[in-house]
């Protein structure tokens, strides 16, 4: 492991200008590429105290052996150079937004005399018009098959086309009117290209005029008593409408935009992109990647847009507007620091101005909320897929055993977390994982009393003491029973009948040491204790001055994080419940004649105590079951409480 101070540039030697920098390892290989508006400020941040760096950043600077930089004239040049170098050197510490799959697109081969429609995956080529990407190939094929009755264009390969051209008869699609059969001369190349042009217009979002035209032709055919043609047009119109319904109409102004949203945790980032063309969502993409460091959403936006649209620009082979690598608008949750430079760079890729902005209201804001929900769902599903994988769980337990030097794999793990509001309403949760999966029936929660005002370390000690005192008591009561974990009276498992192999506490060394001290005090020796510090995801052993660092890709670290997050969620839920009860009790319990049923009815009707306090006597008495006298008492009590708060303020 290299010491960053050995290759730190001399003070004042780094220019205060925009540029791009490269970290190299001892062999000269580039391990990280970054850009900065101010090179001196950015590079100095890498040589700060190692303990304050994000684990991935700390690993990078201790892997590197040198750093170099290139000064450029503008931030736009820095963006371009950073993208080119990341692509050229493929640095191991740069997060790459690569798809784990190739998304299907609809390709129209306009570079052929008889254009062909087909579902396609892979790099884009010049002279071919693409629509998409789409999340599912089967849905795209289904839509294409539906539209072929309206736009009977060629879908066969070159070999099939030549074979039927030589045979002088069309294929099955030609016989069922899902192909205009240009191979046998039913339509001329120009007529077929016109059909393909209408198909492209439809997929580009220009659907309303086409639907109105078909309606006019259908009505005209019916008036002229051409009922067979009218019926065929009716079926075509129905197929068009079904195809339109398959793509939700989200915006009514023909918006051409990409909507980007993020969901993050301490280790990973989920990115979701919705492609909106002609006011409709035409496709979406999703990524889940390792988080580079603790940077916020603006920095994530900057890095993602640079890599994504840089790659799109290289893949795009056509200059037509519908095939442009960048849409007219890019909607993001937060603007990056160098938003103007990023806008200019995106505009250069598109060839016209590109708007980069945060939607504030209306349909676009609603769509952004939908994309954000999808990003969160993708991150959650990613976690569940990992948790549900038996092989991954087994590997995580084995890795924990090796990393913590345990005598056996920790098949039962318990985690303790504390929650409070500035020392009030202090509660704790205890969650249980068995074989790497949550066992929710054994979750427990604690309202703390003795150590509530003494800080988290004392609170952790109290919870551990209460939990294992209960375990010792139940073990003693069971005696030599053949089923020590089962209550003989109820036949159900005892609450604290089993001790864990591993106890995890939310915190660092002091919390782990406190928990281990309680176990030693109670004479329990077969339970290992660790603390998991949230900021840097460090694993602390009791009385150990240095933490154990698990690799970011470690399945064991993911299991510990999942355990800690579940304990935090359970504790927060209990804390909110207690706080809500306390706030309700302090305000309404003293109102004469107001029982629990009517109290609940009032809170349900008004939604919160604040809105109830603002309500008039008439509004309160309008709640079913609440008379005017009770309403006056409620109003008087809440008014007095508000006055008391004002005096305290």
UniProtKB/TrEMBL annotation:
This is UvrABC system protein C. GO terms for biological process: nucleotide-excision repair; SOS response. Belongs to the UvrC family. Keywords: Cytoplasm, DNA damage, DNA excision, DNA repair, Excision nuclease, Hydrolase, SOS response. Gene3D superfamilies: 5' to 3' exonuclease, C-terminal subdomain (1.10.150.20), GIY-YIG endonuclease (3.40.1440.10), UVR domain (4.10.860.10), UvrC, RNAse H endonuclease domain (3.30.420.340). It comes from Actinosynnema pretiosum subsp. pretiosum. It comes from the Bacteria. It is found in: Cytoplasm. One of its GO terms (molecular function) is excinuclease ABC activity. InterPro entries: GIY-YIG_endonuc, GIY-YIG_endonuc_sf, GIY-YIG_UvrC_Cho, Hlx-hairpin-Hlx_DNA-bd_motif, RuvA_2-like, UVR_dom, UVR_dom_sf, UvrABC_protein_C. Interacts with UvrB in an incision complex. Residues 16-95 form the GIY-YIG domain. Residues 208-243 form the UVR domain. Residues 259-519 form the UvrC family homology region profile domain. The lineage of its organism: Bacteria, Bacillati, Actinomycetota, Actinomycetes, Pseudonocardiales. The UvrABC repair system catalyzes the recognition and processing of DNA lesions. UvrC both incises the 5' and 3' sides of the lesion. The N-terminal half is responsible for the 3' incision and the C-terminal half is responsible for the 5' incision. One of its GO terms (cellular component) is cytoplasm.
């Amino acid at each position: 492991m290299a010491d960053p101070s050995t290759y730190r540039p001399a003070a004042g030697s780094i220019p205060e200008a925009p540029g791009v920098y490269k970290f190299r390892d001892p062999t000269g290989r580039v391990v990280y590429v970054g850009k900065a508006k101010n090179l001196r400020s950015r590079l100095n941040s890498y040589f700060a105290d190692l303990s304050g760096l994000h684990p991935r950043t700390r690993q990078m600077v201790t892997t590197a052996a040198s750093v170099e930089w290139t000064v450029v004239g503008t931030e736009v040049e820095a963006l371009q150079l950073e993208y080119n170098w990341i692509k050229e050197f493929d640095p191991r510490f740069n997060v790459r937004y690569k798809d784990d799959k190739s998304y299907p697109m609809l390709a129209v081969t306009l570079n052929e005399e008889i254009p062909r429609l087909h579902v396609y995956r892979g790099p884009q080529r010049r002279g071919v018009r693409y629509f998409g990407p789409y999340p599912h190939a089967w849905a795209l094929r289904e839509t294409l098959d539906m539209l072929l009755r309206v736009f009977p264009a060629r879908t066969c390969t070159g070999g099939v086309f030549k074979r039927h051209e030589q045979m002088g008869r069309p294929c099955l699609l030609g016989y069922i009117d899902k192909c205009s059969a240009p191979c046998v001369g039913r339509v001329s190349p120009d007529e077929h290209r016109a059909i393909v042009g209408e198909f492209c217009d439809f997929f580009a979002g220009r659907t309303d005029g086409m639907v109105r035209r078909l309606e006019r032709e259908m009505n005209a055919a019916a008036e002229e008593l051409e009922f067979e043609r009218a019926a065929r047009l009716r079926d075509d119109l129905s197929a068009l409408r079904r195809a339109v319904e398959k793509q939700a109409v989200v915006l009514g102004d023909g918006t051409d935009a990409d909507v980007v949203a993020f969901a993050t945790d301490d280790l990973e980032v989920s990115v979701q992109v919705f492609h909106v063309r002609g006011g409709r969502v035409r496709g979406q993409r999703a990524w889940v990647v390792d988080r580079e460091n603790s940077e916020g959403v603006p920095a994530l936006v900057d890095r993602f847009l640079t890599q994504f649209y840089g790659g799109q620009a290289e893949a795009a082979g056509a200059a037509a507007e519908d095939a442009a690598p960048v849409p007219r608008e890019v909607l993001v949750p937060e603007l990056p620091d160098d938003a103007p430079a990023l806008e200019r760079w995106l505009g250069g890729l598109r060839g016209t101005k590109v708007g980069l902005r945060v939607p504030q209201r209306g349909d676009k804001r609603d769509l952004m909320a939908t994309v954000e929900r999808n990003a969160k769902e993708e991150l959650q599903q990613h976690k569940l897929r990992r948790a549900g994988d038996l092989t991954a769980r087994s590997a995580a337990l084995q890795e924990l055993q090796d990393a913590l030097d345990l005598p056996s794999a920790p098949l039962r793990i318990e985690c303790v977390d504390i929650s409070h509001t500035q020392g009030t309403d202090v509660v704790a949760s205890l969650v249980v994982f068995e074989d790497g999966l949550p066992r929710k029936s054994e979750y427990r929660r604690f309202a703390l009393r003795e150590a509530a005002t003494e800080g988290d370390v004392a609170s952790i000690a109290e919870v551990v003491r209460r939990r294992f005192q209960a375990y010792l008591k139940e073990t003693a009561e069971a005696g030599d029973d053949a089923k020590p974990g089962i209550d003989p009276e109820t036949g159900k498992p005892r609450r604290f009948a089993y001790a864990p192999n591993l106890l995890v506490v939310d915190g660092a060394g002091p919390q782990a040491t406190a928990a281990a001290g309680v176990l030693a005090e109670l004479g329990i020796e077969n339970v290992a204790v660790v603390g998991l510090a949230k900021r840097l995801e460090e694993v602390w052993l009791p009385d150990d001055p240095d933490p154990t660092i698990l690799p970011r890709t470690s399945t064991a670290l993911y299991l510990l994080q999942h355990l800690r997050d579940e304990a935090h969620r359970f504790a927060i839920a209990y804390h909110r419940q207690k706080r809500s009860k306390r706030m309700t009790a302090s305000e309404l319990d003293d109102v004469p004649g107001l029982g629990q049923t009517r109290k609940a009815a009032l809170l349900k009707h008004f939604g919160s105590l604040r809105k109830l306090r603002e309500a008039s006597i008439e509004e309160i008495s309008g709640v079913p079951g609440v008379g005017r006298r009770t309403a006056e008492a409620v109003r008087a009590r809440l008014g007095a409480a508000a006055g008391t708060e004002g005096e305290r303020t």
